[in-house]
Amino acid sequence: MLITAIEPRRKGLSALFIDGEFAMNLDTQALLENRFDVGRDISDEDLKEMIELSNERRAKEKALWLISYRSHSKKELKDKIRRTCDDSSAEKAVERMEELGLVNDEEYARQFARKLLLQKKMARRAAMLEMSRKGIDKETAEAALDEVDVDYRENIRYIIEKKYRDIGDEKIKRRAVAALQRLGYGWDDIRAVLSEYEED
Q1: Which residues contact 169 (CB under 8 A, 6 or more apart)?
Q2: pTM (2 d.p.)
Q3: At what angle do helices 87-99 and 74-81 cross, to 10 degrees?
Q4: For helices 170-182 and 187-199, what crossing angle results, to 10°?
Q5: pLDDT tens digit string along 65-93?
Q6: Cα–Cα distance for residue pair 140/17, rounded to 1 Å
Q7: Range of the domain at 117
Q8: Are 90 and 110 in the same domain?
Q9: pLDDT tens across 116-154, in order?
Q10: 160 in the same domain as 142
Q11: CA contacts within 13 A on the Cβ side of 115
Q12: Considering only CA atoms, which of 58, 88, 93 is closest in space to residue 74?
Protein backbone atom coordinates (compact mmCIF):
# COMPACT_ATOMS: atom_id res chain seq x y z
CA MET A 1 0.00 0.00 0.00
CA LEU A 2 1.42 3.36 -1.05
CA ILE A 3 0.79 6.66 0.74
CA THR A 4 -0.16 8.93 -2.16
CA ALA A 5 -1.24 12.07 -0.24
CA ILE A 6 -1.56 13.55 3.24
CA GLU A 7 -3.80 16.61 3.52
CA PRO A 8 -4.26 18.74 6.65
CA ARG A 9 -7.71 18.79 8.22
CA ARG A 10 -9.19 20.58 11.22
CA LYS A 11 -8.40 19.87 14.89
CA GLY A 12 -4.90 18.46 14.39
CA LEU A 13 -5.96 15.76 11.96
CA SER A 14 -4.66 14.90 8.50
CA ALA A 15 -6.41 12.95 5.74
CA LEU A 16 -4.40 9.92 4.68
CA PHE A 17 -4.72 8.75 1.06
CA ILE A 18 -3.56 5.26 0.16
CA ASP A 19 -3.21 4.18 -3.48
CA GLY A 20 -5.01 7.35 -4.58
CA GLU A 21 -8.05 6.74 -2.31
CA PHE A 22 -8.99 8.49 0.92
CA ALA A 23 -8.31 6.02 3.74
CA MET A 24 -8.94 7.87 7.03
CA ASN A 25 -8.19 10.89 9.19
CA LEU A 26 -5.27 10.43 11.59
CA ASP A 27 -3.49 12.58 14.16
CA THR A 28 -1.05 14.87 12.30
CA GLN A 29 1.59 14.77 15.04
CA ALA A 30 1.53 10.96 15.15
CA LEU A 31 1.99 10.85 11.35
CA LEU A 32 4.98 13.22 11.53
CA GLU A 33 6.64 11.48 14.47
CA ASN A 34 6.38 8.09 12.75
CA ARG A 35 7.52 9.36 9.33
CA PHE A 36 4.37 8.49 7.48
CA ASP A 37 5.32 10.48 4.37
CA VAL A 38 3.95 10.64 0.83
CA GLY A 39 5.61 7.93 -1.27
CA ARG A 40 6.14 5.54 1.64
CA ASP A 41 5.05 1.95 1.16
CA ILE A 42 3.23 0.61 4.24
CA SER A 43 1.88 -2.74 5.34
CA ASP A 44 -1.47 -3.51 7.00
CA GLU A 45 0.49 -3.91 10.24
CA ASP A 46 2.06 -0.43 9.86
CA LEU A 47 -1.36 1.10 9.29
CA LYS A 48 -2.92 -0.73 12.25
CA GLU A 49 -0.09 0.48 14.50
CA MET A 50 -0.48 4.05 13.23
CA ILE A 51 -4.25 3.99 13.91
CA GLU A 52 -3.56 2.87 17.51
CA LEU A 53 -0.89 5.57 18.01
CA SER A 54 -3.22 8.19 16.54
CA ASN A 55 -6.11 7.12 18.77
CA GLU A 56 -3.92 7.10 21.89
CA ARG A 57 -2.58 10.57 21.12
CA ARG A 58 -6.10 11.94 20.50
CA ALA A 59 -7.32 10.35 23.75
CA LYS A 60 -4.50 11.97 25.77
CA GLU A 61 -5.19 15.36 24.19
CA LYS A 62 -8.89 15.01 25.02
CA ALA A 63 -8.01 14.03 28.61
CA LEU A 64 -5.75 17.08 29.05
CA TRP A 65 -8.40 19.35 27.54
CA LEU A 66 -11.10 18.01 29.90
CA ILE A 67 -8.83 18.28 32.97
CA SER A 68 -7.96 21.87 32.07
CA TYR A 69 -11.60 22.82 32.70
CA ARG A 70 -12.11 20.99 36.00
CA SER A 71 -10.97 17.94 37.92
CA HIS A 72 -12.52 14.55 37.10
CA SER A 73 -12.67 11.12 38.67
CA LYS A 74 -11.01 8.31 36.70
CA LYS A 75 -14.35 6.80 35.67
CA GLU A 76 -15.85 10.13 34.66
CA LEU A 77 -12.79 11.03 32.57
CA LYS A 78 -12.68 7.63 30.88
CA ASP A 79 -16.41 7.77 30.07
CA LYS A 80 -16.03 11.19 28.44
CA ILE A 81 -12.98 10.18 26.40
CA ARG A 82 -14.72 6.99 25.22
CA ARG A 83 -17.30 9.14 23.41
CA THR A 84 -14.62 9.99 20.82
CA CYS A 85 -12.05 7.16 21.19
CA ASP A 86 -11.90 3.41 21.65
CA ASP A 87 -11.83 1.79 25.12
CA SER A 88 -8.16 0.87 25.03
CA SER A 89 -7.02 4.40 24.10
CA ALA A 90 -9.29 5.93 26.76
CA GLU A 91 -7.90 3.54 29.39
CA LYS A 92 -4.28 4.36 28.45
CA ALA A 93 -4.99 8.09 28.48
CA VAL A 94 -6.52 7.93 31.98
CA GLU A 95 -3.61 5.81 33.24
CA ARG A 96 -1.18 8.40 31.87
CA MET A 97 -3.07 11.25 33.54
CA GLU A 98 -2.93 9.30 36.80
CA GLU A 99 0.84 8.75 36.42
CA LEU A 100 1.28 12.50 35.90
CA GLY A 101 -0.76 13.19 39.04
CA LEU A 102 -3.48 14.98 37.08
CA VAL A 103 -6.16 12.47 38.09
CA ASN A 104 -6.46 11.37 41.70
CA ASP A 105 -9.72 9.84 42.93
CA GLU A 106 -8.94 10.45 46.64
CA GLU A 107 -8.30 14.17 46.09
CA TYR A 108 -11.28 14.45 43.75
CA ALA A 109 -13.50 12.73 46.34
CA ARG A 110 -12.41 15.21 49.06
CA GLN A 111 -13.23 18.22 46.87
CA PHE A 112 -16.49 16.72 45.66
CA ALA A 113 -17.59 15.78 49.20
CA ARG A 114 -17.10 19.39 50.36
CA LYS A 115 -19.07 20.70 47.38
CA LEU A 116 -21.99 18.29 47.90
CA LEU A 117 -22.30 18.74 51.67
CA LEU A 118 -21.39 22.41 52.12
CA GLN A 119 -22.45 24.09 48.87
CA LYS A 120 -25.27 21.89 47.59
CA LYS A 121 -26.41 21.13 51.16
CA MET A 122 -26.98 17.43 50.46
CA ALA A 123 -27.42 14.80 53.12
CA ARG A 124 -24.78 12.09 53.39
CA ARG A 125 -26.95 9.43 51.70
CA ALA A 126 -27.52 11.55 48.56
CA ALA A 127 -23.84 12.58 48.51
CA MET A 128 -22.79 8.89 48.58
CA LEU A 129 -25.06 8.21 45.61
CA GLU A 130 -23.62 11.15 43.65
CA MET A 131 -20.08 10.02 44.38
CA SER A 132 -20.80 6.47 43.24
CA ARG A 133 -22.16 7.90 39.97
CA LYS A 134 -18.79 9.55 39.45
CA GLY A 135 -17.08 6.20 39.94
CA ILE A 136 -15.74 6.83 43.46
CA ASP A 137 -15.60 3.56 45.40
CA LYS A 138 -17.52 3.26 48.67
CA GLU A 139 -14.49 3.37 51.02
CA THR A 140 -12.97 6.44 49.33
CA ALA A 141 -16.34 8.23 49.34
CA GLU A 142 -17.00 7.46 53.02
CA ALA A 143 -13.51 8.62 54.02
CA ALA A 144 -13.95 11.88 52.08
CA LEU A 145 -17.40 12.54 53.58
CA ASP A 146 -16.08 11.80 57.10
CA GLU A 147 -13.53 14.61 56.67
CA VAL A 148 -16.25 17.25 56.18
CA ASP A 149 -17.57 18.81 59.36
CA VAL A 150 -21.24 19.40 58.66
CA ASP A 151 -24.39 19.92 60.74
CA TYR A 152 -27.16 18.32 58.67
CA ARG A 153 -29.97 19.94 60.64
CA GLU A 154 -28.31 23.32 60.09
CA ASN A 155 -28.33 22.53 56.34
CA ILE A 156 -32.07 21.79 56.52
CA ARG A 157 -32.66 25.12 58.30
CA TYR A 158 -30.62 26.92 55.63
CA ILE A 159 -32.67 25.35 52.79
CA ILE A 160 -35.98 26.20 54.49
CA GLU A 161 -34.89 29.79 55.19
CA LYS A 162 -33.64 30.29 51.65
CA LYS A 163 -36.39 28.63 49.60
CA TYR A 164 -39.41 27.87 51.78
CA ARG A 165 -39.83 30.86 54.08
CA ASP A 166 -43.60 30.55 54.44
CA ILE A 167 -43.28 27.06 55.95
CA GLY A 168 -46.59 27.54 57.80
CA ASP A 169 -48.43 27.13 54.50
CA GLU A 170 -49.23 23.42 54.13
CA LYS A 171 -48.53 23.39 50.37
CA ILE A 172 -45.10 25.01 50.82
CA LYS A 173 -44.35 22.66 53.72
CA ARG A 174 -45.08 19.61 51.52
CA ARG A 175 -42.88 21.04 48.78
CA ALA A 176 -40.06 21.64 51.27
CA VAL A 177 -40.30 18.09 52.66
CA ALA A 178 -40.20 16.60 49.13
CA ALA A 179 -37.16 18.73 48.21
CA LEU A 180 -35.33 17.80 51.42
CA GLN A 181 -36.03 14.10 50.85
CA ARG A 182 -34.62 14.40 47.31
CA LEU A 183 -31.47 15.83 48.89
CA GLY A 184 -31.25 12.65 50.98
CA TYR A 185 -32.51 13.87 54.35
CA GLY A 186 -34.35 11.39 56.55
CA TRP A 187 -37.78 12.08 58.00
CA ASP A 188 -36.50 12.27 61.61
CA ASP A 189 -34.17 15.19 60.84
CA ILE A 190 -36.74 16.95 58.65
CA ARG A 191 -39.47 16.60 61.31
CA ALA A 192 -37.15 17.81 64.08
CA VAL A 193 -36.32 21.02 62.18
CA LEU A 194 -39.92 21.57 61.06
CA SER A 195 -41.08 21.33 64.68
CA GLU A 196 -38.85 24.33 65.50
CA TYR A 197 -40.80 26.44 63.01
CA GLU A 198 -44.13 25.19 64.36
CA GLU A 199 -43.05 26.28 67.84
CA ASP A 200 -42.26 29.76 66.48
Answers
A1: none
A2: 0.73
A3: 140
A4: 150
A5: 999 988 899 999 999 999 888 899 999 99
A6: 49
A7: 105-147
A8: no
A9: 999 999 999 999 999 999 999 999 999 999 999 999 999
A10: no
A11: 10
A12: 93
